[in-house]
Design brief:
This protein is of the alpha+beta class. The chain has nine helices and 23 strands. Strand 19 and strand 20 form a beta hairpin.
């Protein structure tokens, strides 16, 4: 009898604890907790901004807030040295801070990138379609595996008050000011100074709303040949404000290049050189997508070509999951078979230049333009689709470099 009393007593004591644990369970998320409907957007933004708000088109946003010199440099605390071309008054690096107070400043766009494969680490590109044409902007945010929340095809709206807009290697982006004081970097004296930095992850999540649910069918791709591309952009723009403004407005465009192949070449400090068989850990010219830079971190490029003489660089990160995979047609014997694999390369168009002296010397050669794929078959978005001699029954199958091949 006494044992039964103890059991009942223990059960009575446990009931409040069980109730407490149950009451602490988080509420299951619903679609309305994560996504805001278009019909509810105005009311939400009005409540958030008693002084009013404006949603800027992406190019309008750049025209309004991004200046050539920016407002974050001074004689005592400058931008990095290599950023300024005094001959033409052009800055490859800049930071313009945005007002913290006053009416809300918003931009809106659909995410077109995916960080899974590693080419868009802690970065994304948003796209807006205005009168049938793409307007795009890069966003630098300190978010690891951001694709888990901000998926490709998701439309987002961002409150930009208190942030900054600037250029990193001439590529416009939403950012925050960042000061680089790495005195041990290669050419450190040229790199110490202000430049665009990543928006803190928690801040980005708090200022960003997801409008509707992801819709990849709403993403616009411009499909064209290299010959057509160079009728729409200048392959070798001049070092002046007009051409640089046009270049910056084209940055981030999502394109599909038709009828191209890897020709097995890479840019070796300004000289186009054949890739070789070698270990990507130590051989910068290895015939893979992105050999090691010894952690310097600059993008690695391999050249694309059409059946004529038109070329464009394909840019990849040494930290991409497929960095050590052979180029289409390349293998342990070299690059002789590359020309036999032709198809399409999809990705983000960019014009990357981090040395203002190139502008000052007016030595632009067209290799500043590049396309950055979001992935390859098996890793993220399969943006590179190649076929042996055009036969769709013989697709390129990615193969990783094997040290035993040497």
């Amino acid at each position: 009898m006494r044992k039964s009393i103890y059991i009942v007593y223990a059960m009575l004591l446990a009931m409040p604890i069980v109730a407490l644990i149950t009451s602490c369970e988080p509420k299951a998320l619903t679609e309305n907790d994560l996504f805001i409907a278009e019909s509810d957007l105005d009311a939400a933004l009005s409540a958030e901004n008693p002084e009013g708000y404006k949603i800027f088109r992406l190019e309008e946003f750049l025209d309004t807030f991004m200046t050539e010199a920016g407002n974050f440099a001074s004689d005592t605390c400058p931008y990095r040295e290599r950023s300024y071309d005094s001959k033409h008054g052009l800055y490859l690096y800049s930071v313009d801070t945005l007002p913290t107070n006053g009416r809300g400043i918003y931009i809106r766009g659909r995410i077109v990138t995916d960080d899974y494969a590693g080419n868009f680490y802690k970065a994304m590109v948003i796209q807006q379609v205005v009168n049938g044409k793409q307007q795009t902007l890069r966003i630098s945010a300190d978010l690891g595996s951001s694709h888990g929340m901000f998926q490709t095809g998701q439309e987002i709206i961002i409150r930009c008050n208190g942030l900054a807009v600037g250029r990193y290697a001439n590529q416009p982006q939403l950012c925050v000011p960042s000061y680089n004081n790495n005195i041990y970097a290669m050419n450190a004296s040229q790199k110490v100074g202000w430049c665009p930095g990543r928006i803190q992850g928690s801040v980005f999540r708090s200022i960003t709303k997801m409008v509707g649910t992801p819709d990849q069918t709403a993403i616009v791709y411009d499909t064209l040949t290299l010959a057509t591309l160079y009728t729409e952009i200048k392959k070798q723009p001049s070092a002046n404000a007009t051409d640089m403004n046009a270049v910056r407005k084209m940055d981030g465009r999502l394109i599909v290049l038709k009828d191209v192949h890897f020709n097995g070449k890479y840019d070796d400090n300004g000289t186009m050189t054949n890739c070789v068989v070698g270990h990507p850990d130590t051989v910068g010219g290895a015939n893979v997508f992105a050999p090691s830079t010894q952690n310097i971190g600059y993008p690695q490029s391999r050249q694309l070509q059409d059946q004529g003489s038109n070329t464009l660089m394909c840019s990849n990160s040494e930290y991409a999951k497929f960095a050590y995979y052979y180029l289409p047609g390349a293998d342990k014997t070299g690059i002789a078979n590359c020309a036999n694999y032709e198809g399409t390369v999809t990705g983000i168009l960019g014009w990357y230049l981090d040395k203002a002296q190139t502008l000052a010397d007016e030595k632009l050669d067209g290799n500043e333009w590049s396309v950055t794929p979001r992935g390859i078959p098996g890793f993220g978005v399969p943006d590179i689709k190649m076929y042996y001699q055009g036969d769709i029954n013989e697709p390129w199958v990615p193969k990783e470099f094997d040290p035993n091949d040497l």
